[in-house]
């Protein structure tokens, strides 16, 4: 189970990576139920990315998949085409969401938004590694 202290550690690692690459980010951490535990909007991060980061964390936990991989599977002709329209539009298929695992079990997720897809994913990976 992810606690607030874990979420803070995950966010701190993600913030460090975002600062290293010079891209302010919104960073969200969700628990095993997909519920938001903590969120940070770094100085000058896009306001519109607050919602996206939270939904990336939720999506990653809801389907136990990195959102960049879900994006690949949701292209026209692929198995999850149209999934972004499910769950009242809550599903995000942009890179930046990663399930958080302990002992091989998904215990939550991180969602990052504010840069390119590659930047968002890299920052999410840095955060996930802190768990």
Please characterize this protein's 3D structure.
This protein is an alpha+beta fold and 131 residues long. It has one domain (4-129): 2-Layer Sandwich (Beta-Lactamase), CATH 3.30.450. The chain is built from four helices and four strands; from the N terminus they run αββααββα. It has helices at residues 4-21, 48-63, 67-73, 117-129; strands at residues 26-31, 36-41, 97-102, 105-113. A four-stranded antiparallel beta sheet has the order 2-1-4-3. Strand 3 and strand 4 (105-113) form a beta hairpin. Helix 1 packs across helix 4. The longest helix has 18 residues, at 4-21. The radius of gyration is 13 Å and the shape is globular. This is Heme-binding protein. InterPro entries: GlcG_carb_metab_protein, PduO/GlcC-like, PduO/GlcC-like_sf. It holds the Pfam family HbpS-like.
Write the layout of secondary structure elements.
Layout: H1 4-21, E1 26-31, E2 36-41, H2 48-63, H3 67-73, E3 97-102, E4 105-113, H4 117-129
Antiparallel strand pairs: 1-2, 1-4, 3-4
Protein name: Heme-binding protein
Organism: Tunturiibacter psychrotolerans
Task: Estimate percent helicity.
Answer: 40-55%
N to C succession of SSEs = HEEHHEEH
Based on the coordinates given, report the CATH architecture.
Answer: 2-Layer Sandwich
What is the count of structural domains?
A: 1
Number of helices: 4
CATH T-level topology: Beta-Lactamase
What shape does the CA trace take? Answer: globular
* Whole-number mean pLDDT: 96
Name the CATH superfamily assignment.
Haem-degrading domain
N→C terminal distance: 11 Å
> Order of strands in the sheet with the most strands?
2-1-4-3
